[in-house]
Amino acid sequence: MGIVSPIGSILSQSLHPGIRMSDDLANATDAPAAESPGDESHCAVFIATSLDGFIARADGRIDWLNDANTKIPAGEDCGYASHIERIDALVMGWNTFEQVLTFDEWPYGEMPVVVLTRRVRTRERPERTPPTVTFSDEAPAVLVPRLATLGLRRLYVDGGLTIQRFLTAGLINSITITTIPLLLGSGKPLFGALRADVPLEHERTTAYEFGFVQSTYRVVAKG
């Protein structure tokens, strides 16, 4: 899970409303590929982990992340609002989507959200799903250029398996990890096996008085 309502329900009240999903996005699954004009796409990770690198317990629970939320002073969002206001659309996996649906409020406003699932044709749309959400079984290398043709180039990638798929495809450009001072011992890891090393360049690290440490890295493009 990224730092959303689990790291402060205060964020759901202050998120940038994003871009209203057009009819094109809702119907774009069968659209032909086209050359994306303008700037290249940028895929960003913004996520919280335990000190030993887990994003959830083995059964998917994030109670520890909710507990960590209580340590955040009022008005502090660990840079989330600044991050989200630069995002055009969010891409997440099904497990992350189901977790977000348990929140009291949908935290992404009117921002387009694409949920990746291999069962896109057989899954029923959950009752609380906002109209801004679409489902896709596309590979990241297909999805990213398609969204670019719709003007959705700055993507927020969330969820462990989804992040791993984008990393493997060489599509992640930046990674921001907020480390919670807690050892879980086991659980769902943020990172998994890779086909090759992924070189990173450190950009900044912020140590918060309440114990969180946030580091941002740029993924170095291979020549």
Whole-number radius of gyration?
Answer: 17 Å
Structure annotation, total helices? 6
Run of helices and strands: HEEHHEHEEHEHEEEE
| Overall number of strands | 10
Read across the widest sheet, the strand sequence of neighbours is 5-4-3-6-1-7-10-9
Tell me about the largest β-sheet. Answer: 8 strands, mixed
Beta-strand residue fraction: 25-35%
> In whole angstroms, how far apart are the ends?
31 Å
Question: Strand pairing plus helix content: what structural class?
Answer: alpha/beta
Weakly predicted, low-confidence segments: 1-38
Morphology:
globular
Mean pLDDT score: 84
- Could you estimate the helical fraction of the residues in percent? 10-25%
Give the topology.
Layout: H1 23-26, E1 42-50, E2 54-56, H2 63-69, H3 80-84, E3 89-93, H4 94-100, E4 113-116, E5 133-136, H5 140-149, E6 154-158, H6 160-168, E7 172-180, E8 188-189, E9 200-207, E10 213-219
